[in-house]
Amino acid sequence: MKTFHIEAPNRAIQSAIQAKIDNLNKPKGSLGRLEELALQIALVQQTLSPELRHPCHLLLGGDHGIEREGVSVSPREVTWQQMQNFTRGGGGVNMFCRQHHFDLRIVDTGVDYDLSDYPTIINKKIARGTKDFLYEPAMSEDEFNQAIQTGCDLVDDCRQAGSNIVCIGEMGIGNTSPSSIWLSLFCDIPLDECIGAGSGLNNAGIEHKRRVLGEAVKRYREWEEHQGKPDATVGALRYFGGFEMITAIGAMLRAAEQKMLVLVDGFIMTACALGACLLYPDAQSYMIFGHCGDESAHRQMLDVLGARPLLNLGLRLGEGTGALCAYPIIESAVRMINEMNNFDNANITKYF
């Protein structure tokens, strides 16, 4: 796997940032999470006057072999149908990107359909979907490395356009399955506690999903033994992940390496953030977690990361919609530190 050089932000400037925040004309700490966000963003950017430039949203599409085992209520063709819908501006992600002025980049990393007639979809197709991880690894080592590099290239393109903050969303029927397995394997949580309804399974569907994923994990353990126990994190990421998910991990790590902010969406993208942080713990310094969704295991995953999401709106659409909804809060934090007056300039008695 590609090597990244990721360092936590230098904290030498932290006291100066905190002093600026504390001297804004307000009671100390009275703007709560906005103050915490402003501190994080200023640390990442190493400045007392942070800014958000040309926000980009990467919408990554990919299909999953495990979908063929009936673990999702939505059929595979919904992936390519929604990708086409995004090009017409008709998705939830389109609406929020328009509202918050994000540069939306729709990317095919592995959709099981020919989307070449849609020039606004960036073609980064690695294969037409992953293999069925009930029987074999979802992707080869070369495909895994290609997906990581694809994420890096996409972030580099955003950075060249002037961006210093990226948001990442996904479109891939079946991708709650690898997310649940990663949570179980990486956090030592019983698999049954990590599996939810996805896009709307009923109780019988959830029970079927548990049986399928349980058998997949058993076979993964056998594969792992046969491989001589390779790097456990990379092995599990490759064995179960989707192309859109591994691309997202590459994008998160590249953004952190470039000292850009990463806005993390719901259950699927939090699973990718978990994988990224296991590989490079300092990457989390650059992440802002947008919301906690309705998937039952999402809260557990956030707790493992010690992450506090900005919103809890009961969303489970994916696409990055929850993270996009949180963006105005991030913008408010930056405006606070830059635009609020301080006690001296406002001629207000400092009362603490």
Provide a descriptive summary of the structure in words.
With 352 residues, the protein is of the alpha/beta class. The chain is built from 13 helices and 6 strands. The protein has helices at 14-22, 32-45, 77-87, 92-100, 141-160, 176-187, 203-226, 232-240, 243-257, 267-279, 298-305, 321-339, 343-346, and strands at 56-62, 103-110, 121-123, 165-171, 261-264, 287-289. Strands 3-2-1-4-5-6 form a 6-stranded parallel sheet, sandwiched between helices. Strand 5 (261-264), helix 10 (267-279) and strand 6 (287-289) form a beta-alpha-beta unit. Helix 1 packs antiparallel against helix 2, helix 4 runs parallel beside helix 12 (321-339) and helix 6 packs across helix 10. It starts with 13 loop residues before the first helix and ends in a 6-residue tail after the last helix. The model has no long low-confidence stretch (mean pLDDT 94).
Write the layout of secondary structure elements.
Elements: H1 14-22, H2 32-45, E1 56-62, H3 77-87, H4 92-100, E2 103-110, E3 121-123, H5 141-160, E4 165-171, H6 176-187, H7 203-226, H8 232-240, H9 243-257, E5 261-264, H10 267-279, E6 287-289, H11 298-305, H12 321-339, H13 343-346
Parallel strand pairs: 1-2, 1-4, 2-3, 4-5, 5-6
Helix pairs in contact: 1-2, 2-12, 4-12, 5-9, 6-8, 6-10, 9-10, 10-11
